[in-house]
Design brief:
With 208 residues, this protein is of the alpha/beta class. It contains seven helices and seven strands; from the N terminus they run ααβαβαββαβααββ.
C-alpha cells in the first residue's frame, strides 16, 4: 500500500521534480558524491535514484562508471533514462528497496539519498543491501535527521498528512538500526544544507 502511494506521488511530481527541488538536489547529491569516495572501477547501485541526478553528477567525473539506479516511480525513471541515454553502462530499473532483482554480491557501493524515510520495511531494505554487497563493499545512506528541529516537526506533520511517509530517525536511532541488521558504521556526520534541512550520512560495512 505504502509503495503504491509513493509511486503515485512521484509519478505525478516527475515532470517538475528537478526544477522544484533543484537547490536541495544539487547540494545533497554533490555532498553524497564527495563523501562516498567512489572508485572509478566500482560498480554502484543507487536505491531511490529518482530522476538520475546522482548518476549524472558521477558521470561528469567518471564517464565510464558502472551504475544501476532503482526506483518505484516509472515516470521518474523515464527522466533518468533520458539523462543517461548516451551511457550504455548505466541502467535503471523499477524495483522496491526491500526486494531488489540482483544476485548476491553484485555491487561495490550502494547509495541511497533522501529516500530512507519512505521505506516501509527498512530492515528488509538493509538486508537486501547486505546481500548484494561484494566483499569489502560499503553502503552510504544520506537522509533527514530527527536531531534537527525542523525534521522533528516534519516527522510529526508528515505522519498525519502524507500516507506515503514512514519516519525519519535520530542519528543514534539510525545507527542502532544499522547495527541490528549486521552493519558497522565506519564514518558518519550530521550536516545542515540550509536553515531548514538537517541531514545525516553514514558509511557502513557488513559486520565481520
Amino acid at each position: 500500500m505504502t509503495e503504491t502511494v509513493v509511486r503515485q506521488q512521484y509519478d505525478q511530481l516527475a515532470k517538475v521534480y528537478d526544477q522544484r527541488w533543484n537547490n536541495y538536489i544539487f547540494k545533497t547529491l554533490s555532498f553524497l558524491k564527495d563523501w562516498a569516495e567512489i572508485s572509478p572501477q566500482a560498480t554502484l547501485l543507487d536505491i531511490g535514484c529518482g530522476t538520475g541526478e546522482f548518476e549524472s553528477l558521477v558521470l561528469t567525473e567518471h564517464s565510464a562508471q558502472q551504475m544501476v539506479g532503482v526506483d518505484i516511480s516509472e515516470k521518474m525513471l523515464e527522466i533518468a533514462k533520458q539523462k543517461c541515454h548516451a551511457y550504455s553502462h548505466v541502467s535503471f530499473q523499477t524495483a522496491s528497496a526491500s526486494a531488489l532483482p540482483f544476485p548476491d554480491h553484485s555491487f561495490d557501493i550502494i547509495v541511497s539519498a533522501s529516500a530512507f524515510h519512505y521505506f516501509d520495511n527498512p530492515k528488509a531494505a538493509l538486508g537486501e543491501m547486505q546481500r548484494m554487497l561484494k566483499p569489502n563493499g560499503k553502503v552510504v545512506i544520506l537522509d533527514w535527521c530527527k536531531d534537527y528541529l525542523f525534521c522533528r516537526i516534519c516527522d510529526i506533520l508528515l505522519k498525519v498528512v502524507d500516507p506515503a511517509y514512514q519516519q525519519c530517525y535520530t542519528q543514534s536511532e539510525f545507527h542502532n538500526l544499522l547495527a541490528s541488521t549486521q552493519f558497522d558504521v565506519q564514518r558518519t556526520t550530521k550536516v545542515r544544507f540550509s536553515l531548514v534541512w538537517g541531514l545525516m550520512i553514514a558509511t557502513a560495512i557488513p559486520q565481520s
